[in-house]
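dumping these here so i dont lose them again. two proteins, back to back, each one seq then structure tokens. dont judge the mess
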Amino acid sequence: MTLDISAEDQALVETIRKNGIGVLRNLLSAQEVETVRTEFDQAHLDLGKGPGTPGVRDSLSGEALLAYPNLAALYSHPRIMNIISTMLNEPMPWVWVVKTNRYTPEHIGVRKHTDGFFG
């Protein structure tokens, strides 16, 4: 299977495969980022995580996140889906769960891992 993917995104796929993480720069406009951040913060307030505690990692998952349209749009963003399709060699990937993580400073972060699933 051959997917239509830019050289920049193919390089990102290789980075993700090597390092377990990649960054999509300039995926959203500054206004889109602000709108998503606002919904992200609101979801954490609405769904019981509060404003964030210093040094704590908060996680939300499930269909309740889809009630925030700008946040939910990230889960099906065409460029993100194309990268996932390439990584999985799957023309029509599907979402198993929608999830957010919030790392409130001074959280030390998370090492490369698989969430218990190989690959």
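---- next one ----
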Amino acid sequence: MNPNPILGVLLVLGAASLWGTTGTARSLVDGSLSADWFGALRLATASAFFAACALASRRPSGTAFVGRLARHDVLGAGLCMAVYNLAFFAGIGMIGVALGTAIALGSGPIWAGLLQAVLHRQRPSAAWWSSTLVAVIGGMLMTIGGARQADGVDPAGILLCLMSGLSYAAYTLLNQRMAHAAPASTITLRAFGVAAAIALPVAWLTGGAPTFTGADLAAVAYTGVVTAGLPYLLFSLALRHITPATAVALALCEPVVAFALSVLVLGEGPAASAYFGLFLVVGGVLGVVRQELAGQRPVSCRALPRHGPSGTTSRA
């Protein structure tokens, strides 16, 4: 399959639109399920969704895949996804949802750009960095704008949210590395299966047996399929066409959707700085798209390590 940057951009924007509904869906539920259990059950629900997709696409037509998935790539991607969820929920519990989300989402593209430069030896251009930083600043203004800030900020919470952003970026690079070895549904199934196997015991150890209502189950089902299953499937497909750093940067459109829903559905009144942040995110994302379409070849087009029959790779 020849890379199609336009398709990759559209796939990530579709994924970000679905991710952006997560907060609103959770806000509409006044249940008793803890954050740890909510995140763990969301991963398990997404895994079940990916299993159904994998069964339906066992013999993809017209698609050629090379080799097998390397076990350490799958385990690494699953560990990153588990850490991303666990660190994020723990972090926002310490420093608040607004600041924690701003740090986690804002640091993701920065981490992705650095990891891509170091591990893939593909440094994003200065224009890409400028556009990404503009979008990051805008996303932080949108997320924090109008939110009440805590009197003190726990450094541990900041570190956890930074770790969450790093884990998300690392997951993206590992996912892209596996993109041509297997269908997207297989990659996400294995990665999320590992993540759920880690997150469920952690939720049990930290919160005991879960207590939930019917509304909780509905929210878990919705977020597991609509805000995790579908978007991560789209995101994995997009990584065959665009670079990991660009994919993570484009995901900054998520707070744009969350912002719109908070105003239109929840009736919230954001500060003026949030509207300015919206302008910056749109402008920054358009700049990132322009750089991707201007001729940046995806990493998948270059000399990536190919997996042999044993699942090993030529690059550690």
